[in-house]
Amino acid sequence: MSNRRSRQSSSAPRISDDQIIDLVTKLRQILPEIGHRRRSDKVSASKVLQETCNYIRNLNREVDNLSERLAQLLESVDENSPEAAVIRSLLM
Known about the structure:
single chain, 71% helix
């Protein structure tokens, strides 16, 4: 890790170990798979970061799927209807 830190540009803001710990703790709390575990169940920071990436990927897939479903729904309604206006606002 020290090699990666030494390669950082000197103008980049540095993040302290305490800040990293705080951010990982916050991620633990919001991740559904990890946040509901008991405090005594220790989860490594790398596992939290892996789960965060997986969770974000899943959320992106859900957004894509919902957008596709809304686009299909929009095709099935009159484009001048109030329903179409609502669907278009959701797609924006």
